[in-house]
Fold this sequence. Notes:
By secondary structure, the chain is mainly α. It folds into 2 domains: about 1-80, no CATH class; about 90-305. Helix content is about 55%, strand content about 0%. It has 13 helices and 2 strands. It has helices at about 1-15, 40, 55-85, 90-100, 110-120, 125-145, 150-160, 175-195, 200-215, 230-245, 250-265, 275-290, 325-330, and strands spanning about 225, 230. The chain has a two-stranded antiparallel sheet. A hairpin with a 3-residue loop joins strand 1 (about 225) and strand 2 (about 230). The protein is globular and about 80 Å long. Residues about 15-50, about 80-85 and about 310-330 have low confidence and may be disordered.
Amino acid sequence: MRRGHRRDDLRQQERHASWYRDTGRPTNGRSRLESLDPIVAARGTPHNIESRILTTGQRVRSDRCVISTRWRTFVSVAALVATAAAPAHDVAFWRAVAQAKYAPPPGSDIPALTDELTVMLSSPDPELRDDIAYSTLTSWIYQQKILDADALRPLVERLLANMRRGIGEQGTDSVFGRSFSTLMLSVIVARDNADRLLDAGAWRRIESAALAYLADEQDLRGYDPDKGWMHSAAHTADLLKFLGRSRYLDAAGQRQLLDAISDKLAKASVVFTYGEDERLARAVLSLIARSDFSASLCGFHVPVRRTTRSPRAAPRRRRRPSRARSRSVPARRRRTAGRPA
């Protein structure tokens, strides 16, 4: 009776394993190299079908090995990510750097410190994000010029990736990383306008990312009393302004920038009340001030005339802000003198 059952089992296994005869694959669906079972992973071609079929116990042990290995790998990767994300220096360290006019301590690992600051650009804490991360990086990139072309290349790629994280979300903290990465790119482009550090390919990627971000960003909040400035539209306008002054921008690119700004103003879901419209206007002026600007080519339907002197305007009475507004929205101070304008 047992011999009959054994014979029937072999026939059934042989039918099940018919597809594997030519490929040398075990019947549990794993290739010889994929299996962790030492019997199946052994080199050489088996001489009979029984040697090519894993028993139930062998399949269970193999599956357990695979699950255990994958779990250990996942835990290791998660630990590495957590370690990389954790800041190596506390707030007191960065406050001391700011008090020293953003001079890094002697012997500092500048790439590592730059990575820390880049992470802080996404922080909902306004001190970490605005007063420390943005201000320090601006000083190192534009004023002290500590970061050279080789250091800026990986920073540009990281900032470009940050601009797409959480895109389309509204009312979440992900806007800080997108908005302040865009603002940081404006500083890099301003440095390139002065020192010519970016190649054409990197500049084109920044241009494309800026236009896409202007169109796709849905979180247009300006200021939060607890978390500070978000200002995504204004920060994008700053980037467009410096792109508009670049040697790489051609006539077609000028038209693209103007069309993108026009579309944003027409389709924005909010009324800009925190100076975003003025910042966008400055981006337009950066184009008009170019020697190769063509009003007709860029779609201007009114004559544009350059003047050597600013037109005299009638004096305008200054409007005093209400007490409620002056208490809730502080003036946007930049503690880094000489930042890009």
